[in-house]
Amino acid sequence: MLNFIEYGTRSEKPSLLVVHGLFGSARNWSVISKRLSDDRHVVTVDMRNHGESAWSDRHTYNDLARDLVEIVGKFGGSMDVLGHSMGGKSAMVLALTHPNLVNRLLVADIAPVGYSHTQIPLINAMKSLDLAQIEKRSDADRLLSDAIPEPSVRAFLLQSLDVKAKKWRLNLDALAENMDHIIGFPDVRGIYSGPTFFLSGATSNYVLHEHKPKIRTLFDTPYFAKIPGAGHWLHAEKPREFEASIRAFFH
Predict the structure, then answer these.
(1) Looking at 130, 162, 173, 180, which residue is catalytic?
(2) Annotated active-site residue in 85, 160, 204, 245
(3) pLDDT value at 172 more than 90
């Protein structure tokens, strides 16, 4: 079973499952999960090949959705689900293949389509890092700065570096091998009729107008909104606005 972290206690509201994106982890979502747990039970997971969860050669969305089925089963049979990016695609496949397990679905800045933006360069940069030279996180940040010039991207990736053990908490080989699956979307036969909210960053180009017909063939009642001034990492860039949107939808 996936590694998970719980926040808050069970209430009359359904438990909320939070599913991170590529290179993320349950811990990345700790601040917002703690805040949301003021009136409900929140569960964050490490997806396979991430964080403290088991590694596997397989990393398709059908595999990822099956992992989530197991988690939902552990916590009572149905949950509200929030997924970002890769986690959003995993959550969509979960809802389409097991609609009875998902009460309501919030998909953060991703659509059920294939994309062309491979993340192989980031994987290559992480794999090329000489971990023997790393004594503290700032060493890794400095050594990655040529390959990854954006400080915010380096900071995010370095959350998955175990400096003391000198290893990545990411199965970089498997993620590279499965990159076509990760940026793609499977041919899923199904329709999810529960409330579905596609929440995007206004400056992001991941959810486009031309994606809406495909979304509407899979989801009966999709709602759409954008957070002004936010990009793909909307939960990190505009955390309070993101939290307010979550609370409004999962009221």
Answers:
(1) 173
(2) 85
(3) yes
Residue 233 and residue 142 share a domain: no
In a domain, 174, yes or no: no
In a domain, 57, yes or no: yes
What is the 3-state secondary structure of the chain?
CCCEEEECCCCCCCCEEEECCCCCCHHHHHHHHHHHCCCCCEEEECCCCECCCCCCCCCCHHHHHHHHHHHHHHCCCCEEEEEECHHHHHHHHHHHHCHHHEEEEEEECCCCCCCCCCCHHHHHHHHHCCHHHCCCHHHHHHHHCCCCCCHHHHHHHHCCEECCCCEECECHHHHHHCHHHHHCCCCCCCCEEEEEEEEEECCCCCCCHHHHHHHHHHEEEEEEEEECCCCCCHHHHCHHHHHHHHHHHCC
Mean pLDDT, residues 27-47 taken together: 96
Residue 145 annotated in active site: no
Domain range for 130? 120-169
Confidence of residue 54 (pLDDT cuts 50, 70, 90): very high
pTM metric for this prediction: 0.96
Residue 76 banded pLDDT, cuts 50, 70, 90: confident
Q: Has 85 been annotated as catalytic?
A: yes
